[in-house]
Amino acid sequence: MVFLYLKGRAFEGLGDLDKAKATYQESIKKDPTHHESYVALGNLYFNQGKYVYAALHMVTPFELTHQIRIHDLTKV
Length: 76
What we know:
Blueprint: H1 2-13, H2 17-30, H3 35-47, H4 51-65, H5 70-73
Helix pairs in contact: 1-2, 1-3, 2-3, 3-4
């Protein structure tokens, strides 16, 4: 869900991380193949020091599509 992903990015940019997280999760629920939402949620978790959650969300798109941008994994 591109709209929800962008909405989550906006919330994150405004510093409202709870709304950003909820919006990314909603995006994933509505479209489990939208890998950008997984990566954004993984980055959010990483920045909060929740490394296991970050890793899980960074790996999920790879498992779904067998494609992931290498630079997204370098943070984990």
